[in-house]
Every structure is written in structure tokens, then in C-alpha cells.
Write a sequence for this structure.
């Protein structure tokens, strides 16, 4: 998870209540960037939260793979004291029942954070004597979730009595989602790695095709698997042709010229990747091994080798790439993808003297609608909002979902700074069109904050910060408001149509 994957704020942000979240964001980004995914990342993740808050210890709990209604501790972190070490060792190997797991079970089942200011005084908290002997007081548990899917619970403890911090609790919901996306990507990459290992073992035992070429590199034999029509079409297209002459066959790993030069040198090759696309758009990805052949007198007679269908592996890799750059609910680019797109836009804008804008949208009163309608209806509203924004944009522009009800638009190639305002007004009007959900008609409004390149800032982090500050100013003015990131510019307001 990159630095921009969480809040994209800086330590110069004027709101002091965000300071703990910024510290967590910084430490968490650094910890996960070097963790490499999987189990080794868990203690580093827990430690990032504890160290940033100055708390004593923590554990990460997830569902036991063998018993559906139980939780298991997957990793922990704590300060170096005997009492803390004894408490954390007590958690290892435990599998408490979900409905009887104290604040951990409550956070999991309720999908919401649980804060106990003093475990010694709160009768609603199930007393853990070993925790009291370790000098622990405040307990906090919050879910790590992606959408409605809870992946685990982070349980944190402080040696002091900490009053309930609403700003911290609100921020932990977002950070929990970011950690959840990291864990999903790590899980997908692990599964892909295991699939690749199994695939390589099977491929070592047998290949899909055997082929031969003559001295002019034309296919004279291509046989093996051929039970499907796409396979038969591919084989028919290859016979009598050189690889680079086959219609629909493209070189995936390098280029044809480099491959032809290697063939002219009569060199063997391994894992040479191509992709064949037939007239209906069906694609087969191939990985081929080839060796030169010679007659009894040492005269070169052509090549022969094997080929494997690696389409499933390619599709899995593409799926992992998609998951890492897209929001699961709306299928829009996520914050990490937006950051890369903004950085690309900066390079092009600097090279060709172009202008562009970042527009941050926040749906007004969404939490109230979500609580009243239910999560499924709330998710439908978010999906519809994303679609409405995308339909109003040019093909070159980008709409992304950042967190919760916050969306971002990257508007490319503006002729002048004033062009951003009509774009924002058009998008606000599209959001305000009445929508029927569960038989009732609703009308949404949104606030928008705009940052312009190069007027407001000249790097990605500063542009996002200026847009965020402009969005906050718009929200203070009321539903349907619009503000620019230039603090010297007088406030502008655009109300959604009545």
C-alpha cells in the first residue's frame, strides 16, 4: 500500500485531531510497503497502529479456517515488558467463539469499532485477569473490512486510561478499509503464486502441443490438444506460415525482430510468449520452447518444440492487477490507481504545457440515507453515483472512488482554469437527478472541491491536499456547494437544481 493509499494529507493539515491518524498513516504505509504480504506483515501492521498511538500492544484476529464460528490470533505486537509478553503469549493459539469473544467478537459481529476506556472499571467488558496484571487499561477493537466483508479485527490496548476519541474512530474505519484491501491483494497474490506453482508442476509433466518447423521457420506440424474450436482455428492458421506471418498472432514478451535474429543464430529458446486472437476475439496465450534440428550431416533443418496454453495464468495475473487498482463495489479506479493517473497527467502536462483539474465529490448526508435505507441500498446509491459521474465525462477523463461516499474526477486538457467550473456544475446536476430505490424516490446532492494544475499546486500530493481543503470549505457552506483550492479566490457556490 503506497503512501497515497490512505488519506493523502500532510502534517501541515490545520486540523490537530487528525494528527494521530496521520502518524498511523505514515507508519502503516512504511510497514506494509516492506512487509511483502502474508503472515509476516501482520505484526508490522499491528505495531504501526500501536507505535503511532503510543499504546502498549495489539493483536490481529481473523476467522479460524477450520472452525467457522471461531476466531484465531494471526499475529501480535507489544512493548518489551514481561507482563505484555505474557499477555500476548496467552493469545497465541486461542480460538474464542465469535459470540463470546469480548470486544473482538463485538467488533466483528457489529462491523463497528468498540472502545472501552478502562477495562478495570467497565462491567460490560469481560475481564481478562492477565490483561489487568499487565497494566492494561483502555481497549479498542475495530474491524478490518472491504465493503461488507469483514476480514479481521485489530485489538489494541493502552497502559493508560484513554478517553474516547471520535475523530480517531472515524479515521479507523477508513484505515481498516485500506488494510483490508491490502490483505485481499496479498491473499490474491499468494493464491496466484500457489496456482502458478501447481501449473508449472503440471506443465513439466505434459505440454499442450508439439510442433515442428522447416528450415524457413514455417510450421509443418502442430498437434496435441485440439478439442475446442479456438484451438482448431489456431492450428489451421499456423500451418504453412512463419510465426510472424500468422494472422492474429502477436509477440507478447519481446518483439518479432529480436526473435527472428535469435532464430537466424540457430539458438534454442524457452518460455517465448505469444497470444493468438481469432476472428471472434477469443484469445489463447502461449508459452513455447524451441530447439534447432539438424540432419545426419549437420545441416540445419528447422525447429521443433512444445507449447503450453497459459491463458488461465495470464487471466489470474490480470485479475490481481485489476483488484489492486479498482474499487470492489463500484468497479471504478481506486485511490492507488488515481494517484498513478495523476502522476502521469503531471508528466504530460509539464511536457506539453497542458492544464488539468482534480475534482473531489462528497455525497451530502449519505450516512443518514445509508442508515435509513440499509447497506444494500446505500451500496446501490454509491454505484449509481459513480455511473452518473462517468457518463458525464469524456473518454479521456477519469472518475475514481476514494473512500466511503467520496469520489474524484481527473479532468484532462482544460483550455483554461475556468473550464473546470462548468464540468463540476454538470456533474453536480447529474448527481441531483431523482433516483428510485426500494420504491421510494430520493434526490442526492454533493459538494465538490477543485484543485487546478498548475495554478494551485505542481505535484500529486499537494494537488490532492488543495482539493481536499476546497471540499471541506464547500461542505461548510452547505449541500450542493462548490469551492476552488485557491485560497485567494473568493468563494464560489453552485447549488444543485431544485
Amino acid at each position: 500500500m503506497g503512501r497515497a493509499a490512505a488519506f493523502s494529507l500532510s502534517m501541515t493539515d490545520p486540523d490537530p485531531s487528525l494528527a494521530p491518524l496521520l502518524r498511523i498513516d505514515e507508519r502503516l504505509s512504511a510497514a506494509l510497503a516492506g512487509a511483502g504480504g502474508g503472515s509476516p506483515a501482520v505484526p508490522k501492521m499491528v505495531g504501526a497502529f500501536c507505535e503511532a498511538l503510543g499504546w502498549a500492544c495489539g493483536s490481529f484476529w481473523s476467522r479460524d479456517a477450520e472452525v467457522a464460528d471461531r476466531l484465531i490470533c494471526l499475529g501480535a505486537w507489544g512493548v518489551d515488558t514481561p507482563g505484555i509478553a505474557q499477555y500476548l503469549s496467552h493469545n497465541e493459539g486461542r480460538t474464542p467463539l465469535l459470540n463470546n469473544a469480548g470486544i473482538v467478537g463485538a467488533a466483528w459481529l457489529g462491523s463497528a469499532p468498540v472502545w472501552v476506556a478502562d477495562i478495570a472499571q467497565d462491567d460490560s467488558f469481560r475481564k481478562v485477569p492477565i490483561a489487568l496484571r499487565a497494566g492494561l487499561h483502555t481497549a479498542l477493537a475495530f474491524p478490518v473490512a472491504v465493503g461488507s466483508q469483514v476480514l479481521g479485527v485489530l485489538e489494541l490496548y493502552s497502559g493508560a486510561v484513554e478517553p474516547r476519541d471520535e475523530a480517531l474512530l472515524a479515521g479507523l474505519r477508513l484505515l481498516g478499509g485500506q488494510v483490508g484491501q491490502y490483505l485481499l491483494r496479498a491473499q490474491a497474490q499468494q493464491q496466484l503464486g500457489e496456482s502458478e506453482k501447481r501449473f508449472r508442476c503440471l506443465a513439466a509433466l505434459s505440454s499442450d502441443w508439439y510442433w515442428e518447423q522447416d528450415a524457413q521457420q514455417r510450421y509443418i506440424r502442430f498437434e496435441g490438444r485440439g478439442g475446442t474450436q479456438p484451438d482448431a482455428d489456431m492450428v489451421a492458421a499456423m500451418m504453412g506460415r512463419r510465426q510472424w506471418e500468422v494472422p492474429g498472432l502477436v509477440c507478447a514478451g519481446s518483439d518479432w525482430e529480436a526473435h527472428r535474429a535469435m532464430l537466424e543464430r540457430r539458438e534454442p529458446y524457452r518460455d517465448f510468449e505469444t497470444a493468438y486472437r481469432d476472428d471472434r476475439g477469443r484469445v489463447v496465450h502461449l508459452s513455447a520452447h524451441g530447439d534447432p534440428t539438424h540432419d545426419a550431416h549437420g545441416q540445419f533443418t528447422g525447429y521443433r518444440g512444445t507449447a503450453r496454453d497459459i491463458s488461465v495464468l495470464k487471466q489470474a495475473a490480470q485479475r490481481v492487477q485489476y483488484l489492486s487498482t479498482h474499487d470492489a463495489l463500484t468497479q471504478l479506479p481506486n485511490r492507488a490507481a488515481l494517484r498513478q493517473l495523476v502522476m502521469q497527467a503531471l508528466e504530460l502536462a509539464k511536457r506539453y504545457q497542458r492544464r488539468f483539474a482534480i475534482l473531489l465529490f462528497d455525497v451530502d448526508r449519505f450516512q443518514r440515507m445509508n442508515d435509513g435505507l440499509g447497506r444494500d441500498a446505500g451500496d446501490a446509491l454509491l454505484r449509481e453515483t459513480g455511473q452518473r459521474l462517468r457518463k458525464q465525462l469524456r473518454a479521456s477523463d477519469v472518475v475514481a472512488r476514494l473512500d466511503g461516499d467520496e469520489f474524484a474526477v481527473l479532468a484532462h486538457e482544460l483550455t483554461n482554469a475556468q473550464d473546470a467550473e462548468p464540468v463540476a456544475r454538470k456533474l453536480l446536476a447529474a448527481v441531483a437527478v431523482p433516483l428510485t430505490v426500494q420504491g421510494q424516490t430520493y434526490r442526492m446532492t454533493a459538494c465538490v472541491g477543485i484543485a487546478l494544475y498548475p495554478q494551485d499546486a505542481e505535484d500529486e500530493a499537494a494537488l490532492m491536499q488543495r482539493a481536499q481543503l476546497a471540499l471541506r470549505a464547500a461542505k461548510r457552506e452547505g449541500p450542493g456547494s462548490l469551492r476552488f483550492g485557491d485560497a485567494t479566490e473568493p468563494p464560489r457556490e453552485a447549488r444543485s437544481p431544485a
Remarks:
- Confidence is low (pLDDT under 50) at residues 1-14, 199-205, 487-498.
- The two ends are 42 Å apart (CA to CA).
- The first strand starts at residue 57 and ends at 63.
- Residues 3-194 form a domain with the Beta-Lactamase fold (CATH 3.30.450.40).
